[in-house]
Amino acid sequence: MKNTISLLALVLFSLTGHSQTKPIFFYNENGEELSKEIFIASLKNGQNTDLYFENDTIQYGVAVQREKFGRLNNTAFSELKKYLSELSGTEIDSSKNIVINYITALPNKEQTIQSRTGWNVLHNDYLRKLHKIADINQFWINSPECDNLDYYHENRINWLEDKENLFKKIFFPFEIVNGNYILIRPNGIYYYYLGEHGKHIIWENSKRFFK
After folding, report:
1. What parts of the chain have a pLDDT lower than 70?
2. CB 149 within 8 A of CB 167
3. Per-domain residue ranges for the chain?
4. pLDDT of the residue at 107
5. Residues in a beta bridge with 180
6. H/E/C letters for each residue in the chain?
7. Residue 43 CA neighbour count, 13 Å, CB half
8. What pLDDT is attached to residue 4?
9. What distance in Å separates the CA atoms of residue 92 and residue 100, rounded to the nearest whole number?
10. pLDDT for residue 172
11. For residues 203 and 39, what is the distance between their CA atoms, to the nearest angstrom?
12. Which of 87, 107, 128, 141 has the fewest CB neighbours in a 10 Å radius?
């Protein structure tokens, strides 16, 4: 039997270490219970990433799909563009594609060993090539809980805080380490990728998605 759990409840309990005394249960992102074997198998091809949470008595492992396609309805897409315009102080050209580079709260400042990341998405050639692929509005967005903007070169990247957690509500209910990105066509069809990635992945997926 499939047991549905509250994903909202899950995110309240951050797993800092696997306790040997607590039982652990496994689920997919829709709250459907999985066997341990199916959970592990779902991670092997890289299509899912695993997250862990706990409360006082139980641990949870959740398999979250890394890549997803969808479509924003007209109202939601208009609200998203209005929100981006307010955050950036610029009018959004509705005829252009949108690319969002989004960083989560993880890793936080205490978890960072280096003073600055060498992440190649922050290299100067990333945007130059991206704009050659298609007509694009590109935005750098950070979670309000992110305390580590200096690590992500805040001195030269125009990070915009997702003050209303709109991106989290629409796309990212889970805190994935190392950020995510979203590609959105002018008709509201979107693709997103969760977790660690490089500039070459974004370039290649943009070529396919925006063609």
Report:
1. 1-20
2. no
3. 7-65, 67-209
4. 84
5. 102, 194
6. CCCCCCHHHHCCCECCCCCCCCCEEEEECCCCEECHHHHHHHHHCCCEEEEEEECCCCEEEEEEECEEEEECCHHHHHHHHHHHHHHHCCCCCCCCEEEEEEECCCCCHHHCCCCCCCCHHHCHHHHHHHHHHCCEEEEEEECCCCCCCCCCCCCCCCEEECCCCHHHHHCCCCCCCCCEEEEECCCCEEEEEECCCCHHHHHHHHHHHCC
7. 17
8. 36
9. 13
10. 85
11. 31
12. 128
**Residue corresponding to tokens 């943009």:** 206
What tens digit of pLDDT does each residue of 72-100 get? 999 999 999 999 999 999 999 999 999 99
Q: Note whether 108 and 183 are within 8 A (CB).
A: no
Res 20: pLDDT? 57
Q: Tally the residues of the chain.
A: 211
Within 13 Å, how many C-alpha atoms sit on residue 81's CB side? 21
